[in-house]
């Protein structure tokens, strides 16, 4: 009986949380964006103010979910996300994990799905903050270079979609290309969502059997060097394979609550110690 009441309460809390998220997104687009346009004339300052507003809104949403008993969280290595000019690469186990990253990463910029830029509940904040969309792939790299050059931190999910539970991670080359072209170290972030929820194709009203525990672990930066004697495509392919191996190893250890450590004897070992 207690378990049933708990699940019903979390169902109510989930519905309330996502209603607040949708309404909040619409209000940001309808009222906050025009107000910022009128009050802040400088485009850079206006964009910075918009991103800070979104960051505080996301923190409020996280606080609401915690207060209602829907989701709790923990971030290991939070101080590492406070540095400027980061290229943050993370796995993507849930629809809501990006909210935690944006909420706690300083000067956060994102590469977001083009469909979100057309969604009535999310398009207002996305346009207001000037986030990068993947609708035009050829323009993404140039936009990423500009963002990092301005000292902003770029958040990217290299899988290109949400992580499938119980499947090995396989990254696409976008993150590697950006790292190599901009000579930017990679800041890896491991994300665990227990029990799994809001995975690809799973609707918000599928309430998990217990409160969501969202855990993020920020690892040490991975230095990236570009070899001008090798073709860019080959280097990107090599680095992408290494990142996939690296994340799979670290996530396996993370899931078993062991301290992340490097496992030698693979292509990942070869790349890191090259």
UniProtKB/TrEMBL annotation:
Q: Which UniProt keywords are present, listed alphabetically? A: Acyltransferase, Membrane, Transferase, Transmembrane, Transmembrane helix
- The membrane spanning regions, by residue number, are 15-40
Pathway(s) this gene product operates in, as recorded in its UniProt entry: Lipid metabolism
Q: Where is the Phospholipid/glycerol acyltransferase domain?
A: 86-194
Q: Which GO terms describe its biological process?
A: phosphatidic acid biosynthetic process
Entry keyword Acyltransferase: yes
- Tell me if Membrane is a UniProt keyword of this record: yes
Q: Name one Pfam family in it.
A: Acyltransferase
Q: Which InterPro entries match?
A: Plipid/glycerol_acylTrfase
Q: Which PANTHER family match?
A: 1-ACYL-SN-GLYCEROL-3-PHOSPHATE ACYLTRANSFERASE, PHOSPHOLIPID_GLYCEROL ACYLTRANSFERASE DOMAIN-CONTAINING PROTEIN
Protein name per the record = 1-acyl-sn-glycerol-3-phosphate acyltransferases
**High-level lineage:** Bacteria, Pseudomonadati, Pseudomonadota, Gammaproteobacteria, Pseudomonadales
